[in-house]
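Sequence in, structure out. Go.
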Amino acid sequence: MYFVFLKVIIFKDMVVKMVKLQFKFKNNKIISLEPTKIIVLSFIAVIIWGSVVLYLPIASNPDQPRIRFLDALFTATAATCVTGLTVVDTAKQWSYFGQTVILLLIQIGGLGLVTITTFFSVLLGKKVGIKGRILAQESLNYLSSEDILKLIKRVITVTFIIEFIGAVIFAARFIPQFGLKGIYMSVFHSVSSFCNAGYDLMGNYQSLTGYRNDPFVLLITSCLIIIGGLGFLVWKDLYEFRKSRHFLLHTKVVLLFTVILLAFGTLYIFIFEYNNPNTLGPLSIPNKLLNAFFQSVCLRTTGFNTISVFNMREITKVINVMLMFIGASPGSTGGGIKVTTFGIIIAAIFSQMRGRDETIIFKHKISYSLVIKSLSIIVLSLIIVLVVTTIILAIDGFPFIDTLYEAIAAFSTTGSSSLGTPNFHTASRIILMITMLLGRVGPLSFALSLSLRNGKRNADKVYPEGKIIVG
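Output:
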């Protein structure tokens, strides 16, 4: 219980300082920044704070060699961006203090610093103005800023309740196995699962391979991952369904494509890894299905694994890459281009194939600007991934599919590694850190944060229509 209290004390102290800092700069230039820039800067600030704290001697176990600052920076970046990529063994290298810091970074990264500071601002009786509401709306990818404060209260409250329930259920398995340490491990793995981070304390980079025949641990972990990956708006809509008796279009698209992608991933992994002696081969048929399902869930931006990713067949890795790239839902703890972005483009393609100029989903017309935004996100994301893959190929010279796997795992904040991140060159790790940050804040949001002012200056310009032949 000491470690749980330590987490709460550090978390409270840090957030209160952040809230005070937020109001200290109220009359400063920072408050005039666009929301996208503030969100990007908030992630960078948390990463820097985490790096400095993790570099302290108290954060590492005394029997481990002195950690490099770059490794502390990589760990802080991966934890804040809820990406399970690791360059050191989390269970061996870090002390309980260091692991608690990582846990806090995961929690802050999963919910967003803006969301957390806004929540504590309300809790401390501070007034949140229009600027703060818009910033919170951007942070949660919510549709409106009117009731954003109520939503934030619900998001934080529900998050802690779900993580607490998950920890209590995990404790039923971990306490008999690890003793009192099982309480701490239960809290850690509950938060890591819900925030789609994929960090574990099993040691030796084995993740959850020791539980491949344990439906209890795998199904509870899967539930936490899926709930965290649905997104806050979907939670709200599901909760209010008993009154409204209907779902938002957003919720319908998220649920539909979540089910399709989970089912597709499970079936694909089950078929192509069925006889692979290094993955699903030795397992019974029920456990083959269980582990195929678990891997499909984890490919929605959580870096856990129960079977060797390195030993998967190449054709399986290709589909894994596609599923990781799509990722979870907007406003969730997961990453990727998001299932709604993918769903809109699929709907646009089918609409074009049917000779329609308008994109239709569930008998609703999708605006042209939303289709263009979705296409921009996908194209920008593909460019980033391909550039990163090319650079790392030039540095390390690993096989293409494994290098692409690492690049997309970083960008989609999945954290599933085929080769093992410690095997990559220092320069490649720096590239991966930048990629994780881009993936967490979103490529389009990051681009907007750099060019928003220029976009405003050019917004009123009128250009002649041009014609280009395509297809």
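Check: The first helix runs from residue 2 to 24. Confidence is low (pLDDT under 50) at residues 1-12, 14-31.
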